[in-house]
Amino acid sequence: MTSYTVLKLIHVVTASISITGFFIRGIWMIQSSSILQKRWVKIAPHINDTFLLLSAAALVIITAQYPGPAIWINAKMAALLLYIVLGTVALKRGKTKGIRIISWCFALLTFAYIAMVAISKNAFPVI
After folding, report:
1. 19, 33, 39, 55: which could join 10 in a potential S-S bond, CB 3.0 to 4.6 Å?
2. What are the backbone dihedrals phi and psi of residue 74, each rounded to the nearest 5 degrees, phi first?
3. Structural domain boundaries in the chain
4. Which residues contact 43 (CB under 8 A, 6 or more apart)?
5. Distance between CA 21 and CA 15 in Å, rounded?
6. How far apart are CA 29 and CA 108, in angstroms?
7. Alpha-carbon distance values, 103 to 21, 63, 93 (Å)
8. Reduced DSSP (H G I as helix, E B as strand, rest coil) percent helix, strand, coil of the chain, to 5
9. How many C-beta neighbours within 10 Å does residue 26 have?
């Protein structure tokens, strides 16, 4: 297995874990579950997302696609920043449950966009 293959596998697996965890935490938020206050629920996503971001950075470096002509990577990074902001509002900073639920839904849509861009390697995967 090449280093690219290993890094891509790590990236895909940690991305899958990340969105699954975010989805579950969103359900717990909607249910006002006390599970959200558990220490492991607060720490585990940060550990996983660290590996996700490190694998992404390593992939970009070994493929020499950033900065430069890889517009899809720029789109993915911009969407990632939006996803982080929406996720923070959804799970921490939203003042009302309604705002948190709407932010959670938009964060899920943003993640779907990120995945479509990653698969298609096109900043406009729907067009």
Report:
1. 55
2. -60, -40
3. 3-120
4. none
5. 10
6. 14
7. 16, 33, 10
8. 80, 0, 20
9. 21
